[in-house]
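Task: sequence in, structure out. Protein: Phosphotransferase family enzyme.
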Amino acid sequence: MDEVRVVVAHSERTTLRVGDTFLKVDADDANLEVEVEAIGLAPVPTPEILWRKPHVLALAAVPGTALGVLGRPSPASPDAWAAAGAAVRKLHEAPLPPWSAPSNDEIVAGLDRECDWLIANDVLPADLVTRNRELAELVFRPWTPVFAHGDLQITHIFTERDEVTGIIDWSEASQGDPLNDLAVLTLGHEECLDDLLAGYGTDVDVEVIQAWWSLRSLKAARWLIEHGFDPNTPGAEFDVLRARM
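Result:
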């Protein structure tokens, strides 16, 4: 008999796996609406939608294995990372989706709130927060929006025989900064960036990707802590911030 496995669970969202079916339960039904529409628009392999009800989405499992997990070396080959880069480039060249990403002003305001919280609550040393906030400033430059995944974590791209078999978790898809997708995918896996960019196939500003590593880690810290995750585990967000020093 298939067992129910909890993939992720917190106050905003829970994902369960039963056999080859994933059930996503989201407190904000709009997130699932975005995911359904994005899956239909994305020109890359995505999960099959089995059914949809208010606050619940059933998806079929995608074949293959995730590129890795945060905090551990990626088991994927350089060719698999290059294939992921090619898939991300294909997504970024697709027609824009209808949802806009936050503006630079909104991102700055949110980032500064999180930095103030990290320092005020002695979560991280002030000099570490300040230095990474300075590095993150490179993100705020003119950029052309693309069809962005928005949460392209290393666990969200699956490959098999060095080919991409599925990209999952589309609830944050929007018109976004392409380098944010590349940064999120390589967060904590800097050694894989060259292989990813070899498949992506165009010149990018690596310093901006590194700036996104700082920004993402600073902004995510409080949410992770408040939802039962530890950004201080080896190789995770706090190590990413320390490495930027």
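The chain has one domain: 64-243.
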